[in-house]
Amino acid sequence: QVQLVESGGAAVQAGGSLRLSCAASGRSVNRYSMGWFRQAPGKEREFVAANRFGGGYTYYADSADFVKGRFTTSRDNAKNTVYLQMNSLKPEDTAVYFCAANSGGGGLKASDYAYWGQGTQVTVSS
Fold first, then answer.
1. 6 pLDDT tier (thresholds 50, 70, 90)
2. What are φ and ψ of residue 108, in 5° steps?
3. Which residues touch 30 (CB under 8 Å, ≥6 apart)?
């Protein structure tokens, strides 16, 4: 099994940037499709971005008002770490951000992923 630990969350002002990290242990991230989700208070966990098995294909939440063009996910197999670069942050990006792993082809739903980190808090003030 793979264990995941997120880091990099912080409190920032609107317009700022953060890079979240998801460090994996136990198995190589190259064996998994890796996803990022977020959950704001009182809301359901929502898909942000994912990078498919082997790192061959990356996709993002399909909404112009959401993260498209502002967030980028990448992976460093040598460091066994996945990243979420977040730019032009908005107050509505405030949430706990989770990384997740799936030994299959990834997906857009939380139920597609078997392994989860504990989350890291991102707070964006206006």
1. very high
2. -100, -5
3. 54, 55, 75, 77
Distance CA 112, CA 107 (A): 6
Q: What are phi and psi of 124, to 5 degrees?
A: -115, 120
Count Cα neighbours of 28 within 13 Å in the Cβ-side half-sphere.
8
Q: CB under 8 Å to 81, separation ≥6 — which residues? A: 21, 22, 23, 24, 29, 75
Q: Do 13 and 122 meet the contact criterion of CB atoms below 8 Å apart?
A: no
Name 34's Cβ contacts closer than 8 Å, sequence gap at least 6: 22, 50, 51, 73, 75, 82, 99, 100, 101, 102, 106
Give φ, ψ of 31 to 5 degrees: -85, -5
**pLDDT (average), residues 88-110:** 91
Report the amino acid identity of residue 9.
G
Distance in angstroms (rounded) separating the CA atoms of residues 75 and 57? 11
- What is the mean predicted confidence (pLDDT) over 13-37? 95
Do residues 107 and 35 touch, judged by C-beta distance below 8 A?
A: yes
Residue 39 pairs in a beta bridge with 96
